[in-house]
Amino acid sequence: MLQFKLVLLGDSSVGKSSIVNRFVKDSFDEFRESTIGAAFLSQTVTIKDDDQDVTVKFEIWDTAGQERYKSLAPMYYRNSNAALVVYDITQADSLEKAQSWVHELKNKVDDNNLVIYLVGNKVDLTKDDEEKRVVDRDVAEKYAQENGLLFNEVSAKTGEGIQQIFQTIGENLYEV
Ligand code: GDP
Ligand code: MG
């Protein structure tokens, strides 16, 4: 079994804990308590290599987004193999915050194989009302391409795209 460390970064209330909760427990809370410091969880994915099933275990650090915890972040991302940098597609400044995390990761993490996945969460909110969207998918996708990041829009609420994030990261890390 392979093990990888993964960290979640992003502004508070973009849905980091909800994404982890969806992936690890396949559930969603409308009234989730905000994370204090950081939380640790783990979950596996199975990837296929020819006919063989390979189990990849993620050790996940879900950090708190608040400014007062910012100095703790390096402790969690320093030894990570992968980072999920999350924004909320209904909050414009959350993309800017995500971009500043990407910048920090690129400057501070030595591992050139660090996999960074930019995640636009809460896509469910735009299904009934497209006006709720304030971050264009194309803008975020272009930024991701230019910076060598994986990218998708997801919903922790409905589960759309969540499993795929971890599957893709597992496959990427397995190939490295
Ligand atoms: P964190 O601070 O980044 O960990 O964010 P949380 O996971 O605590 O979520 C903040 C709020 O956004 C909570 O009220 C969640 O229920 C809500 N939320 C999280 N993900 C989604 C989503 O995909 N869709 C919707 N509609 N709400 C979400
Ligand atoms: Mg949280």
TrEMBL record:
<dbReference type="GO" id="GO:0015031">
    <property type="term" value="P:protein transport"/>
</dbReference>
<dbReference type="GO" id="GO:0003924">
    <property type="term" value="F:GTPase activity"/>
</dbReference>
<keyword id="KW-0472">Membrane</keyword>
<protein>
    <submittedName>
        <fullName>GTP-binding protein of the rab/ypt</fullName>
    </submittedName>
</protein>
<feature type="domain" description="Roc">
    <location>
        <begin position="1"/>
        <end position="176"/>
    </location>
</feature>
<keyword id="KW-1003">Cell membrane</keyword>
<comment type="similarity">
    <text>Belongs to the small GTPase superfamily. Rab family.</text>
</comment>
<dbReference type="GO" id="GO:0005525">
    <property type="term" value="F:GTP binding"/>
</dbReference>
<keyword id="KW-0547">Nucleotide-binding</keyword>
<keyword id="KW-0449">Lipoprotein</keyword>
<keyword id="KW-0813">Transport</keyword>
<keyword id="KW-0653">Protein transport</keyword>
<keyword id="KW-0677">Repeat</keyword>
<dbReference type="GO" id="GO:0016192">
    <property type="term" value="P:vesicle-mediated transport"/>
</dbReference>
<dbReference type="GO" id="GO:0005886">
    <property type="term" value="C:plasma membrane"/>
</dbReference>
<keyword id="KW-0342">GTP-binding</keyword>
<keyword id="KW-0636">Prenylation</keyword>
<dbReference type="GO" id="GO:0005768">
    <property type="term" value="C:endosome"/>
</dbReference>
<dbReference type="GO" id="GO:0016050">
    <property type="term" value="P:vesicle organization"/>
</dbReference>
